[in-house]
Design brief:
It is built from 6 helices and 11 strands. 30% of the residues are buried. It has 218 residues and is α+β, with helices and mostly antiparallel strands. The strands form 3 sheets. It has a 5-stranded mixed β-sheet. It has a 4-stranded antiparallel β-sheet with strand order 8-9-11-10, covered by helices on one side. Strands 1-2 form a two-stranded antiparallel sheet.
């Protein structure tokens, strides 16, 4: 079994493009997004790292720290950053973990525990499972896991939307319906009895007894 939602995100020490970190200490009291890459100088990942740099202010507004990972050394990441800036118009403005020893990739279930050897002898296809997005809460628990194939670029706007939902539902006893976005109506959580719901929300729209719709709490 790989890492599951609700489990504690494994702690680790690693070198990054912004110096050494202890992961849980680095997260602190913030939310965090860890997104991984199978190898440096790969085309789809280049577009993702550039777009994330442009979008980072939106994560900052939400109190979310961003960190990347790629199965190469940080010296390679630095050279790649120049290419990213040249081709995407933005240089990574967040740390990128060097995972040349595969330690983090194995801890997070992205590569088999038996993986070893020289990362430079491995192709992106060898590491194709290192294409994950992990959202981690201030409690260091995994809140979301997304896994993408190498040929499909990730939708980081969707990651922001999910974080908005996660932060809202962590604070209020609600859930968000399909395609929800900020300001839309929400659903009273199933764990809330009708008596509790009356105290908390007053009233609600009820197309079915198990679907209780209310405006988004502020």
């Amino acid at each position: 079994m790989g890492l599951q939602i609700g489990e504690e995100a494994p702690n680790f020490e690693a070198e990054t493009t912004e110096g050494p970190i202890k992961f849980h200490d680095w997260i602190g009291d913030s939310w965090a997004v860890l997104f991984s890459h199978p190898k440096d100088f790969t085309p789809v990942c280049t577009t993702e790292l550039g777009y994330m740099a442009k979008l980072k202010p939106e994560f900052d507004k939400r109190g979310v720290k961003v960190i990347g990972l790629s199965v190469d050394a940080t010296t390679d990441h630095e050279a790649w950053a120049a290419d990213i800036e040249e081709t995407q118009g933005a240089r990574p403005n967040y740390p990128i973990i060097g995972d040349a020893d595969f330690n983090v990739s194995k801890l997070y279930g992205m590569l088999p525990a038996s993986t070893s050897g020289d990362p430079k002898l491995r192709t992106p296809a060898d590491n194709q499972t290192v294409r994950n997005v992990f959202v981690i809460g201030p409690d260091k628990k995994v809140k979301l896991i997304l896994v993408y194939p190498m040929t499909t670029g990730r939708n980081f706007d969707e990651v922001l939307r999910v974080i908005d939902s996660l932060q809202l539902t962590a604070k209020h006893r609600v859930a968000t319906p399909v395609n929800w976005k900020q300001g839309d109506n929400v659903i009273i959580a199933g764990s809330v009895s009708n008596d509790e719901a009356k105290e908390i929300f007053g009233g609600w729209e009820e197309p079915k007894p198990y679907i209780r719709i209310v405006p988004q709490p502020s």
